[in-house]
Design goal:
Two copies of one chain form a homodimer.
Chain A (H helix, E strand, L loop, with lengths): L4 E6 L4 E6 L5 E7 L11 H9 L9 E5 L14 E2 L4 H6 L2 E2 L8 E4 L3 E5 L2 E5 L2 H12 L4 E5 L4 E7 L2 E8 L1 H11 L15 H13 L3 H4 L1 H8 L8 H15 L9 E4 L2 H13 L4 E4 L2 H13 L5
Parallel strand pairs in A: 1-4, 4-7, 5-8, 10-13, 13-14
Antiparallel strand pairs in A: 1-2, 2-3, 6-7, 8-9, 10-11, 11-12
Chain lengths: 302, 302
């Protein structure tokens, strides 16, 4: 094996595995649909062994995994680490898996928790992406956005995650898209993004006081033939992203960092640009760089 | 027949019919599930004839119907009447059904439209409830709220509906309740309202910037065992109602008028009371009083 670290991004619906060099760059990467929901009870060691066997790891080989694999429904619970938190906190709260297959050293990255007004918030997997983004961009401060089913807005200061907030943006989009009255006039497939309709939706959501009100405009614009059916999914997507942006105090200065699938980060970049806010986009490399950087902070095995 | 007007409240999923005295009070009332979605194509005359036959109406008998029966999917479209609108506008825009069964005079009340920032809004059925509330309470001004699948906030000045806004509150509650990640920890049935959990949810939604964020608290509070499962439906309901209230400029002075099913208006009254805003609750009588008052403004038949 020519790598330094075996890194696993093990989420709810997918498992991606990479062999990394000492600097966190990727030697080889593969992935599949064996997310934690697809693993039978007691099946984690076998799925893990199969995922890494191509690299014939020696006993003691360091492996680090992030994501829902550390949740109560995962392999081994890595309890949430409270904010503010940096690399050192993540390293100290790694959940080591005893008796990992082949005698490797497998550590699971803890999720983070934060509290606002007595209400807790949690994330798991995004913390390592943010840490990777800090390393990739050589930054120690800023606002980091991880769009998705449950979007995360993460505030970093002096290299530590200070706090964050979750928005159920992707999930509410899917609910409105598929199960609400709006579904009646929407075409069956989303089609390519219509930038104009997307930005129109984003602007309406920001001008409106609440998504509960703004969302009904997708219905009435269709009713009055003021929005072609093909443009409606983009408009609805704009409503959701615009609502998420409406609720933020957007920073002046350094670009907002968007981390995630390109199809999503492109939309957020577009909506931010319309507000005059610059952004920087990152993809999967953030996870690998984060796990690689975390590995370098660990002491050698005893 | 001993009444003056046959009134029909004909919505999407139900049909209610009443025989009214000249002053708008009810002689007799009945109803069922024959909403417009349950009427086969071409079936409106027969359903209507059966609904009113018990009163053996003479030819020329005045009948007034409000609700979705006047929509494009209903019996006969009564095009939206633009705001501001009062009794006189509704009367002038009645859609008279030609050749109604038994030679009765059947008029369908138009819905209302309003426009805000270039985006249209519509309602159908609620306009007559608001008009009825004005008659019942002897008011000519105020804020009227009609909670439901699509809640309406209606502003009245000098006896006319000036404008209104729709909130998809009930529908989004049902989507989150049944189809979102929150459903995983919620009990199968809602159970009786837990006032404390409801008000806690309402307060959190008002303090939060967006329902997209506030809704996730139902997940995290459950995750941290900080909200018992039995209280979660009430908490979620509070989040939705609180979000709707957050987006309002609540009036000082005269009570907000809540019109609708008691189970809903009670919740809104509770959330408003927590904000120091008095409210007055009305039920089905608003529709009958509105149709009765509308009938009195009509000229005698030619």
């Amino acid at each position: 094996m020519t790598g330094n670290l075996i890194a696993l991004d093990w989420g709810t619906s997918s498992l991606r595995v990479a062999l990394l060099r000492a600097d966190g760059t990727v030697v080889e990467e593969h992935g599949g649909s064996q997310g934690i929901l697809a693993v039978a009870p007691g099946g984690f060691p076998a799925v893990f062994a199969q995922a890494i066997e191509r690299w014939r790891p020696a006993p003691g080989q360091l492996c680090l995994a992030s994501g829902m694999v550390g949740s109560r429904q995962g392999w081994r619970e890595a309890p949430y680490c409270p904010c503010p938190a940096g690399f050192d906190d993540l390293a100290r709260h790694l959940a080591w898996v005893p008796d990992a297959p082949g005698g490797v050293r497998l550590g699971i990255v803890p999720g983070l928790s934060s509290t606002r007004g007595g209400v807790p918030d949690v994330m798991r997997g995004e913390e390592i992406q943010v840490m990777g983004a800090l390393a990739l961009l050589d930054r120690r401060d800023g606002v980091f956005v991880l769009p998705g089913t449950h979007s995360k807005w993460v505030r970093v200061a002096a290299g530590r995650i200070v706090d964050f907030a979750t928005f159920m943006t992707g999930e509410v989009y899917a609910l409105l898209r598929k199960h609400s009255i709006l579904a009646r006039t929407l075409p069956p497939e989303d089609g390519p993004l219509d930038d104009e309709a997307f930005l129109r939706g984003a602007a309406h959501a920001r001008a409106s006081g609440s998504l509960l009100q703004a969302a009904f405009s997708a219905r009435t614009l269709a009713l009055f033939d003021a929005l072609p059916p093909a443009a409606q999914p983009s408009y609805l997507s704009g409503l959701l992203v615009g609502e998420e942006l409406r609720a933020q105090q957007l920073p002046a200065g350094a670009p907002v960092v968007l981390i995630g699938a390109e199809a999503l980060t492109t939309r957020y970049a577009l909506a931010l640009q319309a507000l005059g806010v610059p952004s920087h986009r990152l993809g999967a490399e953030a996870t690998w760089r984060g796990l690689g950087a975390l590995a370098r902070t660990l002491p050698p095995p005893p």
